[in-house]
Amino acid sequence: MSLRILLIDAETPLGEHIALHLREQGWRVDQASNQLDVIDRLEREAYDVAVISGPSLHNQCVEIVKILKQIPLHPEIILLIEAEQLSLAIATQQYGIFDDILVPCEMERLIKLVKHATRKHKRKLLKKWCQDQFAAAGMAELGDQESARDILKHNATRKENKNE
């Protein structure tokens, strides 16, 4: 299973450059250019990391972060900003984004940040899986086999959707 990244950029050369470098890592990169694209992508796919281009989407960034954060197991969010967008970084940090990074930046630095965000996301998924397993075991122990099966079935469905 490869890393899935949602790159949110208003179709700029910077976005294409970033997508190219992330794909060179062997990662799957889907692109969205606005809030509606983001919603459409999220309805069809689960992502490990979302990278938002602040320079191209300045006015939409906070709303996009809010949309992403509504997902129960939301992707970790990295915001790319320019030096004059520090107020945007502060505004999005209030919603718990993973990190922000000033552009232009070295691609190696962004790649390292994406890897770190991915590890955090995988830990979050593992924690949820363990909680569900304990809940199913508890239900089974109490004699509620149907609820236990429902929890395990839900986990299996979520895993199948993530592997597609």
Secondary-structure-derived class: alpha/beta
The averaged pLDDT comes out at 85
Q: How would you describe the oligomerization state of the chains in this entry? A: single chain
What's the CATH class of the largest domain, please? Alpha Beta
The coarse silhouette is elongated
The value of Rg in angstroms is: 18 Å
Poorly predicted runs are: none
H-E string: EHEHEHHEHEHH
Please give the CATH architecture of the largest domain.
Answer: 3-Layer(aba) Sandwich
Helix content: 55-70%
Strand content: 15-25%
Largest sheet: 5 strands, parallel
List how many beta strands DSSP finds: 5
- What is the CATH topology classification name of the largest domain? Rossmann fold
Number of helices in the DSSP assignment: 7
Molecular structure report:
This protein is of the alpha/beta class and 164 residues long. It has two domains: 4-123, Rossmann fold; 125-163. Helix content is 59%, strand content 15%. It has seven helices and five strands. Strands 2-1-3-4-5 form a five-stranded parallel sheet, with helices on both faces. Strand 1 (4-8), helix 1 and strand 2 form a beta-alpha-beta unit. Helix 6 runs antiparallel to helix 7. The longest helix is centred in the last third of the chain and has 35 residues, at 107-141. The radius of gyration is 18 Å and the shape is elongated.
Short description:
By secondary structure, the protein is an alpha/beta fold. It is 59% helix and 15% strand.
Any descriptors?
alpha/beta, 2 domains, 7 helices, 15% strand
Record the SSE blueprint.
Layout: E1 4-8, H1 13-24, E2 28-32, H2 35-44, E3 49-53, H3 54-57, H4 61-69, E4 76-81, H5 86-93, E5 99-102, H6 107-141, H7 145-163
Parallel strand pairs: 1-2, 1-3, 3-4, 4-5
